[in-house]
Amino acid sequence: MPDLICAARRTGDQESRTEEYELRFSAGEAPPQILHVKYQAARAYEINAALDAATEASRATISENHPGLPQPTDEALAQLFWRTIQAAKYEGGQTKVSTLEI
Fold first, then answer.
1. 21 — pLDDT class (breaks 50, 70, 90)
2. Most buried among 18, 53, 73, 75, using CB within 10 Å?
3. Which domain holds residue 79?
């Protein structure tokens, strides 16, 4: 089975309350989908908007590269995104990668 790969790197001021990330979603040979998200951790609606954007980018990546495969659930995609950005949060701009079998 192919994998959906999510790579995250924290950008912007590491000490700021506003968290900014560059995300790259890939699921095959095509160039990755790049998404920039920005939110304040104290604002749930901003986090939810980032989760929604990441879910849509993930779905687009899967559809482009593997159109015949069933899509993972929104929850599985959101967990992949959240797990990846949390791993990258305190890494000083280093990229962290997580995968999800699709």
1. very high
2. 53
3. 3-101
